[in-house]
Structures are given as C-alpha cells and as structure tokens.
Amino acid sequence: MMTLLFTMDLMLVLEKFLLIGAVISFALVVAMYTTYAERKIAAWMQDRRGPNRAGPFGLLQPVADGVKLFFKEEIIPLASNRFLFVLGPALAMITAMLTSAVIPWGEYIEILGRKISLQIADVNIGILYVFGVVSMGVYGIMIGGWASNNKFSLLAAVRGASQIISYELAMGLSLISLLMMTGSLSLKTIVEQQMNGSWNIIYQPLGFLIFIICVFAECNRTPFDLPEAENELNFGYHQEYSSMKLGLYLFSEYVNMFISSAVMATLFFGGYDIPFVDETALTASLGANLTALFCFLALFAKVLFFLFVFIWVRWTIPRFRYDQLMDLGWKKLIPLALANMIITAVVMLLIKN
Amino acid sequence: MERLTNRAKVMEQKPMSFMESLYLPAIFKGMAITFMHLFKKKATINYPEQQRPFSPVFRGLHVLNRDEEGRENCTACGLCAVACPAEAITMEAAERKSNEEHLYREEKYAAKYEINMLRCIFCGLCEEACPKDAIYLSETFAPSSFTRKSFIYSKDELLIPHPVNEPEKFAAAKGAREARQKN
Amino acid sequence: MPLSEILFWFLTALALFSALMVVFSDNPIHSVLWLIMVFFAISGHYILMNAQFLAIVNLIVYAGAIMVLFLFVIMLMNMNTDAEPQKSQWMRIAAALSGGALMLVLVAALKDNVGAVSRTSGEGSIGLIRNLGKVLFTDYVLPFEISSVLFLSAMVGAVVLGKREKNTKPVNN
User: Fold this and answer.
1) What is the end-to-end Cα distance of chain A in Å, rounded?
2) Which of A64, A310, B79, B171 has its CB surrounded by the most CB atoms within 10 Å?
3) C57 to chain A: which residues are within 8 Å by CB?
C-alpha cells in the first residue's frame, strides 16, 4: 500500500485534484450564468428586456438569486423521510457533476516541464461511463420525489424516471453507430480521430439528431420538461423542496446542460479541435500552453452554442403531452436509431470491401 | 346557422404528411421566428427611469387644489361626495374663523376630507361636479402600501403643496395640468 | 498490503454489509437502496479485476434500470406495517432450509475453485470491451445468440401482453 502510494507520484494526485476543482468550479460558474442567459434570451425572444437591475446589465443577477435561495426558510415536511429527503438533491447535483470527469477539455499543458493532461480520467469506456452516470441521475429524482411523502411529487418522480429510462435507450442506440465508426469508447481517442479527419457530424447527422433530442429529454428541458411542468402538472418532484435544496435541483439541470453540451461537442463536433487549424503546427509555433488555451476556447465556443440552442428551443417549442413523449421515444427514435445503425454498418462494410 | 362575419376559418383535419409528422420543418420555422425576435425593438421600457407619456385624459390620484395665494379652494359643499358612484369621499364642513382668511378662500371649508383609494374607481366625476375647481385627478398613480387603512387618504396627503411657501413642489404637483386644459 | 488488496477488503465488507442491510431493513425502499450499494461494491470489484466494461454495464443495467423498476413498484405500493402479511412458523423453517441448501451448493461450487478468488488484483484483460466482444462472438457465439433469442421472445411476449384489444378504440391518436 505504502509503496503504491509513493510510486503513485504525489504530483499526479495534486494535479488531478486541482483539475477536478477547476472543472467543477468552472462548470458551476457556467451553469450560474446559463440561468442568467436563459432569462435574458427568453426576454429578448419575447421582446422584453430581462434582468438588468443587479449590477451592470444585470450581471450579478445569478448571485442575487443564489443568495435569495440560501436565505429562504428551509422546510422539511414532517412526514417525510428526512435522510432521503436531503439525499435527493445531493444525488441530483453529484450525478450532474460526475460526467465532467471523462470529458477532454484540451490536450495537455506544460507547467515546469510536466505534461498535464486536461482530462480528469481517460478511461477506456468513457462513453459508457457517461451512460452509467446518466442512469444514476434517475435516483436523484426518484428519491427526492418519494421522500417528500406527497403523491404529486411521487407521480412526477415516476414520470421523470420513466422518461429518462426511455430516452436512455434511444440515446445509447444512436451512439452505437458512432462507436462502430470510431472503434473506441474513449472520448480522448474520439476527439483525436476527429482532429485528424473530419468531424463526426458529417458522417452521423441522423445519429446526432437523435442524440440531441435524447439529451433534451435527459436534461428535462422543454419540450420534454414534464417532470417539472410547473404550470400544468403541479411543478413535479421538487414540489416539497424549498431553499437551497430546491436550488440544487434547479441548478443541477443547468449543470447537466453544460456537461451534455460538452459531451455533444466532444462526440460530434470535434471536441477541442479548432476548425481549419492544424494543432500540431500551432503547438510548434505557439507552445503547448497557448495551444491548449485556444483549444479549450474552441470547445467552450461549441459548448456555448449548444447552450444557446438549449435555451432557444425552450422558448420556441411547447411541451409534449406525456403519451406523445413516450410515442416519440419508443416508436420513432428507437426505430430510427436502429435504422441508422444498420445503414452505418452496411456503408462501412461496402467501403471496406 | 348563418355566419355573422366571413372571417371564420374552416379547420381542415386531414392526416399529416410524412414531412409534417417529422415536425422538424415546423420546429425550424418556429426557431427562425424566435431568433428574429432577438433583434426586434423591445416592447418594454426601464420603468422608473423612463416613463411613458400620459394620455391627456389620464385620471390618477386626486389632488385638493389651492389658489395662487395658497388658500384651499374647497368649500365642503359635498357635490363631489354626491357625484361619487363608488361613495369613496367623505367630508366634514367647518366655518372659517376670522384669523383663518389666509388658509381658506371661502367662508366654509372642509375640516376633514377623506378619499378611500381602494373604493375609488378614478372616474373623475368628482372633478366634473366641483364648482370651485377644488379637486382634480392628477397624473400620479400606483400607490402601494401594506395596510388597507393607509389607502384612506386624508387632507394631508391630498392637498397640493403651498404655492408660495413651496413653489417647486407646487409646480411639480401641478404638472402638465394647465397645458392639458388649454388644449 | 497493496492498495488493491485494501480496496478489495473494503469493497467486500461494504458489499456484505449492504447485502445484510437489504435483508434486515424494515423499509423496503431502504432495502432497494442498500441493494444498489451492493451493486456499486460489486462494480468496484469488477474494476479491481480490470473489467471496466463489466463494471459499468453492471451499473447501467442493474443499478440504473432494473432497480429503478423495483423502486417504481415499491414506491407505488402502500407499505404499511399492518398491511404486511404474517408469515407462519413453517414458512420460516422452509425459507431457512432452502437458503441453507443454496449456501451449501455455493460452498461446494467454490471449494475447489480458490484460484478465482485469489485473482482479484490481476492485470487480466478479459473484462475489457474488445476482448470480451471477441470472446462472446467467437467462443461463446451460440450461447450468446441463444440468450438474445430468449430476450427477443421476452420482448415479444411483453408487447403481446401490453397490446390493446383490436376492437377497443384507442383513446386518441
């Protein structure tokens, strides 16, 4: 044990810890400002002005919201299961964050002659890890909804959980065709392949379409936000929650949006690849650190675009009815994904021969 | 049944074609529309800093008027209270003493004058009924308070500031009334 | 003691404790949550054996999908203590007997196979997705295909059970 700890290189542990801290705080800040962007863009799309009182252009609005949530009274229903009631929002937040571990945020940076990879963990089953974490996300909803001891919360939790499970299937199937092409489950390898060739979106437009629809459903975003349909279905599984616990549930949605935007950018849009630029040449001329910065900015720009699409769709499209949602998931997306899989396989075999 | 107008549209309910059942063209069309709205002129204004101009017939909170020397116009004749359809106005009359001639214009004045702003419907009939130009509806609006009692405005709140002692406040309270009346 | 061995004993203790808690919890919801903990511990064991694929699939399929369905059913049932059926004395004896018999079989099966137990910290690569796929589609292709036919028949059965009668009209669209 001791020998292993010493051979493990304390520096490696330290740099991983720093990287995790950086990624998580970055995700939180981005999620914070996504709430601001959501309100602002919603306002613009409805010809309004949006929050503009707290700070210049209302930039401090998310801070004000957070402070407000912290100071709200914390109510735990008397007949609820206290431990699970607290566990629910915590699980929702944890699962939202966990996915960020396998996303490559850039190639590597060099500090004091050490190459530091900008990916927290390059596991060889990266995509499956993402799926595993997503399927754990159901528990945050289920446990919170059940522990509230409220029938509306429970029904909403069941609704949300079955929605997530249903769309997970189509999501997995849509990615299988992508994986057949890349031949690897590691996100880093997938990005490197795209840097040398062209982006996967060119080969898998249908797969991307199915994937982004499923991502919308997994993040509980409109048009699939039935678990929390605030006006017609009684606000959903977090009905009994107040104060920062409610805040965590609502906030985990935005963290999920950020992380899944990063996953989409990584899988289909080249990850940290800067379009039309040769990164190895850039590294040679600018050095590794600046290249990593530009690569990261490229990834971030893609993520921002997807975040905008999330918000854009939310303020355009009305909510599905629940049977329509299940119809779309099981009767349209899954057959489409299967067809996409078969087409991809046939085309790949034709090219090979 | 005969139609009253020719604007009624006959709904057609034929089954959707394949392209329609994909919903995608419709979704993209909708997204294009919302995207265009990003660049449209905003319909709202920054309210307390910017204010929309009032219409010339706007009727806001009441003001009890004074003449140029600062004497109250009201003689407590009660015509406004009679005219009020919401019965929001109550008053008590009193006789002017000999040393109060600088306070009240006529020999009779309102010792107590109250308007219940929760009952008032801002119809302006009191203004029309007043023979002495003693009450009129200003451009002030949207009062807010936590108690119902505070919405019963007494004379202190209703009286216009003194034109000689506080000329600036008087001018501000008077507002654009004179200009409006000329038109 | 190498790190992997410490992890092994930790995960083993966690798995056994959670498994006991599954049995001893009063609240069925707690039982299900402890069972999920068991799955996590077992996935940890898989990772120790360098079988990341199995570990994550175990999590996705069992903890992520099947246990959610368990939770559905249990959460929607009204679990009052007085609604619980009283088990007779004979039932308990029968349960103890059958459980003991199962344990005997397990012990007998594992007795000669100590090698499998000690190979926890191995660098084996059979659990990696590439090797696993190769083995499944070459050596074990027949059992693999048979089990997929089994799943297919289960799926068809579920669809048949869930299908509406032909003469009843669907509610809408």
Assistant:
1) 52
2) A310
3) 128
Chain A, nearest residue to B30 by Cα: A316
Of A4, A84, A128, Cβ closest to residue C56? A128
Domain limits, chain B: 62-182
- 3+ Cβ–Cβ pairs closer than 8 Å linking C and B: no
Q: CB distance A48–B42 less than 8 Å?
A: yes
Which contacts qualify for A332-335: CB closer than 8 Å, 24 or more apart?
A: A333/A167, A333/A170, A333/A174, A333/A210, A333/A213, A333/A214, A334/A169, A334/A170, A334/A173
Domain at B62-182: CATH architecture: 2-Layer Sandwich (3.30)
CB A231 within 8 A of CB A328: no
Amino acid at A236: G
The pLDDT of residue B181 is above 70:
no
CA closest to B41 among chain A residues: A47
In tens digits, what is the pLDDT along chain C, a chain of 173 residues?
Answer: 677 788 889 999 999 999 999 988 888 888 888 999 999 999 998 888 878 888 888 888 888 888 888 888 888 876 655 556 666 788 889 989 999 999 999 888 877 766 554 454 455 666 677 788 888 888 889 999 999 999 999 999 988 888 876 665 555 54
Taking the C-alpha atoms of residue A349 and residue A218, their distance in angstroms, rounded to an integer, is 33
Quick one: pLDDT at residue B119?
Answer: 92
Interface partners of chain A (CB pairs < 8 Å, 3 or more) are B, C
Contacts of A222 (CB under 8 A, 6+ apart): A216, A313, A314, A315, A317, A318, A319
Give the residue-averaged pLDDT of A54-69: 89
Region A143-171: what's the mean pLDDT? 86
Give the integer Cα–Cα distance in Å for B100 and A14.
87
Max Cα–Cα distance, chain A, nearest Å: 68
Give B31's contacts in chain A (Cβ within 8 Å): 312-313, 316
Which of B30, B40, B46 shows the shortest C-beta gap to A49?
B46
Q: Please identify which residue in the block is written with the tokens 């405005």.
A: B153
pLDDT of B26 over the 60 cut = yes
Cα(B110)–Cα(B77) distance, rounded to whole angstroms?
A: 9
CB contact under 8 A, A316 and B31: yes
CB contact under 8 A, A312 and B31: yes
C53, C63, C71: residue with CB nearest A128: C53
**In terms of Cα–Cα distance, which of C125, C113, C115 is closest to C46?**
C125
**Closest C-alpha to A299, from A339, A255, A260, A265:** A265
How much is the ipTM here?
Answer: 0.81
